[in-house]
Amino acid sequence: MHVAPVGGTAVQDHVALAEIELCGDLIIAASAAHEDRLSLESIDEVLKVAQEREDAPGA
Question: pTM here?
Fold first, then answer.
């Protein structure tokens, strides 16, 4: 078992932090939406899916 060292050293999981940020962005978008649910296009826009596809190598 691996235990973080004592002394205030923070251990961060960058993937988990990124996922939490994306979830927060979706929650904010959903709360501001006028419809009951976000459309797939709205979700893609919030998550910047199109931008990621454009920035991907070989796109």
Answer: 0.64
